[in-house]
Amino acid sequence: MRIFPAVSRGKSKEFYNAFDMYAQDVYRCVKTLRETIYLYADGKHEEAKIAAKKVANLERKADLLRREIEKTLYSGVLIPFGREDKYNLIEAIDDIADKAEIIVKLAGIQKPKIPKNLVDDLKLLTDRVEETTKKLLDAVVLLNTDIQKSIETAKEVELLREDVRTQEFQLLGKLVSRKATFSAISLKELITLTAQVADKAEEAADRLVALAVKYKI
Questions:
Q1: Residue-wise DSSP of 44-73
Q2: 38: part of which helix (H) or strand (E)?
């Protein structure tokens, strides 16, 4: 049973396909964010700049698709039932891509130099953030085929977010033990913002669960 009831079967399929593509584009933003941070961690700043541009391009692509999906909601193709909740879920997912773009732009300005003793921990943090976002994508794709499985998958996002939080504070603990230089302060901001991508994924997962439970028939 579908969670997004629609007037036209054809339009319904178009909506579901577009929504899945949108979630995949947002996930690609985070995946490329991970690649960008890896490059900064390895001291490859020029390559990181190229990867950062890919994040920005993916964010723009996702944003265009989001607007088209929202136009579909506005147009009345989908029945009003749950329209506001669908809109809120789409916006929550959009926050993830926005956060990824902010991070790479900030990194481009600050040009972070990652201490060797933090490289592996920072990479692990970004790995966990990507895993969290991937789990959200899986939950979104399942919305149209298996609502119960979608809910279960979305709830796993919270557990992954806890892993991110643990890794974040381990990193910050190592960082504060160093002298509070401008570089350290900038790196702290990068770590915190990166972890917030998982926060946004969890917020979107919460909206997904609420939507699924509310309109599950």
A1: -HHHHHHHHHHHHHHHHHHHHHHHHHHHHH
A2: helix 9-41
Comparing CA positions, the residue from 80, 66, 85, 87 lying closest to residue 6 is: 80
What does the alpha-carbon distance between residue 20 and residue 140 come to, in Å, rounded to a whole number? Answer: 7
Over range 8-15, report the average pLDDT.
62
According to CATH, the superfamily of the domain at 9-215 is Phosphate transport system protein phou homolog 2; domain 2 (1.20.58.220)
pTM: 0.86
The backbone torsions φ and ψ at residue 6, rounded to the nearest 5 degrees and listed phi first, read: -140, 160
Instruction: Residue 209: name the closest of 161, 164, 143 by CA.
Output: 143
How far is residue 55's CA from residue 34's CA, in Å, rounded to a whole number?
10
Amino acid residing at 16:
Y
Q: Where does the chain show beta strands of DSSP type E?
A: none
User: How far apart are the C-alpha atoms of 63 and 130, rounded to whole Å?
Assistant: 19
Which two structure tokens, joined as six digits, stand for 197?
């991508």
